[in-house]
Design goal:
The chain has 796 residues and is an alpha+beta fold. It is 48% helix and 17% strand. It contains 25 helices and 23 strands. Strands 15-14-19-20-18-21 form a six-stranded antiparallel sheet, with helices on one face. Strand 11 and strand 12 form a beta hairpin.
């Protein structure tokens, strides 16, 4: 250590220049550092979703989820796997061991997925691996509403323009659209007209598919796309391009179904309503109490929340000229606002802290030169630690800042103790008139205190080592804290060995140092001496006081609350909104609209947005009975009063499972338990009635625990459904098979895509469905005149 300190004095100009450069570079680099609320705390995760249009949850589980789970079992590094099957969607979530490379895990899943795809039913969409997402993936919720444009028109703008534009923003992983209504051509086959004209549903589907360039029915000739070819002349080759004459519903309605002797050909429009409409909804959105679309922007694990947010807002500003007549609300959920407010508060706190440190050092040291050395050494240590984190790809977040704050005590001590001892030794040296250079006095004074401090620093660093071996969520949160703390302590030690002696020598070697204590120190010493004398003479009262304080602390410790993290006062509130399973999409939207309108009457609530059910390639695997209401609150209103008012409104909707929380709290719970709840108890078995009885018992026990709020049983209610069972004897009389009935039922109730039309560089689905006025319910399922062979009489 002597050589290090002596070298720092010998090359003091270089040391000071390097320190100044470090401060300037640190200020420039850290201003562009990645900032987020939390570190990445979720384990490496891969999610695979498979859309299964028209299937019940039981069918999705049996035909898709189970085969895919079996295929994914045994992947290298796989820690946990869970699946969720809801109507029309299967989701497989795979969590890998900590330290597993995410891209490697995705490659392994992709290889297994290729082996299971051929075994899935042909009507299931190809499985899709969702993009890698951050632990707190949602960076913005954008609400779109309009009084002049239809939801279909806004959906097409969102799908083809807004989404594509936002995906180009660096750091954006996905943009899910809730309430999306994709424009398509629909051939709504009327059962009564089919029966009257003795036309089968299969004929309608085949004719529609064959009329298009790209038909999707494998058994029809429309599945084959013919090439245009070319004609050769003596001097040139002329390519042949087939121009599709069908671009509108009116064009498609004129397609001939079959010839009728002595009569005009029967056309598609004679047995069906050919219109432009949208697909069957599996989810919807409510914007500020009315219909609209909600775009949820999600970021990659390495995305910077502030940069992604600013990039999205800039992209939306560029798109603004093309969004006339559409109201765009980008503040329904904007976590960057919370980060920006936190940074502003932190800046004010740092400024006040620096002023207090300068004031305290000036008062206690009573030498501006001494205070200057200490004031410069403190930020230098913290900036050095933060720069190391920045250069290693770290993120400035709550836990990193907590580590730096905890280390401030050590940093301040390192900055003061050396300078104070150097000043004391220089005073003594000058007062005694002893021979020797000032540099030697500075080196000896630094080493006098630095040896024990170095050993103490190493002990502190060693004490943090176990934190680096913590697993799970605790390790994910506290490793960044321990890292930043350790780096700050080590940086402070290096600064104390090099920069502090160099600055002290430059600033103090010619300074006039009075050999007396500062005025405040003299007063405090006098008070301390007066208080200490009676305690030394009679120590028993002191021991008794210390013992009493210790007993009070031991008794009070169990009464203190425990929490992994403090409660952050986010200004964005999330309310889960679960009606009874089997509730229709329209009813869920109606209730959500009522709730939004009522929430917006609360003073300080700026806006409200809701999304229900699913969206394509989104992270919500739920039925249409599941919704989430989101509101943002003005920073100027009282937080606790507004939260209480929101909770009062939410509690006013009986029969609905609901809560009020924040997004950060929900994400932590989901990582801990796989759901949005703090504690989850799973009951296994094959008898649903018994499982429900046991679940109710467990709910009663858990609900009686002090501090437990809102104990509930997961929604696994019996949902009404219509069973279709073919009468084989009756079906044989008409030459029908059970598969014919199922396919016709699926077409009438859920719709069947039979082809595509390409127009203006975009692809539009062509779907055969039934008219809305047909009810798409049991009356249609009972009759089915459309699946009988042509020429046969209708029969039930």
């Amino acid at each position: 250590m002597r050589r290090i300190v002596a070298a720092s004095l010998r090359f003091r100009s270089i040391i000071i220049a390097m320190a100044a450069a470090l401060l300037m570079i640190g200020g420039a680099q850290l201003s562009s550092a990645s900032v987020d609320v939390f570190p990445e705390f979720a384990p490496p995760k891969v999610e695979v979703q498979t859309a299964c249009l028209g299937l019940t949850a039981a069918e999705v589980e049996e035909l898709v989820s189970v085969p895919m789970e079996e295929a994914f079992n045994g992947i290298d590094g796989l820690d946990h796997m869970r699946s969720k099957s809801v109507p029309q969607l299967s989701s497989i979530v795979m969590e890998f061991e900590n330290g597993t490379d995410l891209l490697t895990a995705r490659q392994l899943v992709s290889e297994r997925m290729a082996t299971v795809i051929p075994t899935l039913p042909t009507w299931a969409a190809p499985p899709v691996m969702l993009q890698p997402l951050s632990s707190t993936s949602r960076v913005m919720k954008i609400g779109l509403s309009s009084d002049t444009r239809s939801l279909i028109e806004m959906s097409m703008i969102s799908y083809w323009n807004i989404r594509a534009h936002l995906l180009r923003v660096p750091g954006v992983a996905n943009v899910a659209i809730w309430g999306e209504r994709l424009q398509m051509l629909q051939v709504q086959a009327d059962p009564a007209k089919l029966a009257a004209n003795r036309v089968s549903l299969e004929t309608v589907m085949s004719t529609t598919a064959n009329a298009l360039d790209a038909g999707l029915l494998q058994y029809s000739s429309g599945a084959l796309i013919g090439t245009g070819g070319s004609l050769d002349t003596p001097s040139q080759t002329i390519g042949i391009r087939h121009v599709q004459p069908i671009t509108t519903p009116a064009d498609l309605a004129k397609v001939a179904l079959e010839d009728r002797e002595g009569q005009p050909p029967l056309q598609l429009g004679d047995v069906a309503n050919v219109v432009e409409d949208h697909q069957q909804l599996i989810g919807d959105a409510v914007i500020n109490g009315g219909p609209g679309l909600m775009l949820i922007v999600e970021k990659l694990p390495w995305g910077n929340t502030l940069e992604v947010t600013r990039g999205v807002e800039e992209a939306m500003k560029q798109l603004e000229p093309g969004l006339t007549g559409i109201a765009v609300d980008t503040a329904i959920f904007r976590p960057a606002t919370f980060i920006e407010e936190s940074l502003d508060n932190l800046s004010v706190a740092l400024l006040l802290g620096c002023l207090l440190v300068i004031l305290v050092l000036s008062v206690f040291l009573f030498q501006w030169r001494t205070a200057l050395v200490s004031v410069l050494a403190i930020p230098l240590s913290l900036v050095a630690a933060a720069l190391v984190l920045y250069w290693t790809g770290g993120t400035v977040n709550t836990m990193v800042l907590a580590g730096l704050v905890i280390a401030v005590g050590v940093v301040v001590d390192d900055a003061i103790i050396d300078v104070e001892n150097i000043v004391r030794r220089l005073r003594h040296h000058r007062a005694s008139g002893a021979p020797g250079s000032t540099a030697r006095v500075v080196v000896n004074a630094s080493l006098e205190v630095r040896g024990p401090i170095v050993y103490a620093t190493l002990i502190i660093v060693a004490a943090t080592v176990p934190i680096f071996f913590l697993d799970g969520l605790t390790g994910a949160f506290f490793r960044p804290l321990a890292t930043s703390y350790t780096l700050a302590v080590v940086a402070s030690m290096l600064v104390a060995l090099t920069v502090t002696p160099a600055m002290a020598y430059i600033v103090l070697r010619n300074a006039k140092l009075e050999d007396r204590d500062p005025p405040v120190v003299r007063v405090l010493k006098r008070w301390y001496a007066n208080a200490l004398r009676p305690i030394v003479r009679r120590p028993v009262p002191g021991y008794l006081t210390l013992a009493a304080v210790g007993v009070i602390g031991i008794v009070a410790a169990p009464l203190l609350g425990q929490s992994l993290l403090p409660s952050f006062k986010e200004r964005d509130f999330l309310m889960h909104w679960l009606t009874q399973p089997g509730t229709s999409n329209a009813e869920e939207v109606r209730v959500s609209q009522l709730a939004c309108k009522e929430l917006m009457t609360i003073p300080g609530v700026n806006n409200c947005g809701s999304h229900t059910g699913q969206a394509f390639n989104a992270d919500e695997v739920v039925g249409v009975y599941f919704g989430e209401n989101w509101i943002s609150v003005d920073p100027g209103v009282d937080y606790d009063q507004t939260l209480a008012a929101v909770a009062a409104v939410v509690d006013g909707y009986p029969g609905i499972q609901r809560d009020v929380q924040t997004y950060l709290k929900e994400r932590i719970r989901e990582v801990l338990t796989g759901t949005g709840y703090a504690v989850v108890v799973r009951v296994y078995g094959d008898d649903l009635a018994t499982l429900r009885q046991e679940a109710d018992k467990i709910k009663t026990i858990l609900g009686g625990i002090d501090g437990a709020i809102g104990a509930k049983v997961a929604l696994q209610a019996s949902i009404p459904q219509i069973d279709v069972e073919v009468n084989l004897e009756a079906a044989n009389r008409y030459g029908l098979k059970p598969g014919d009935v199922r396919r016709a039922a699926a077409t009438f109730v859920a719709g069947e895509e039979v082809g595509d039309i390409y127009r203006d560089g975009k692809a539009y689905d062509v779907q055969v469905w039934s008219p809305p006025e047909a009810g798409r319910v049991s009356r249609t399922l009972r009759t089915f005149p459309s699946i009988r062979r042509a020429g046969q009489d209708p029969d039930g």
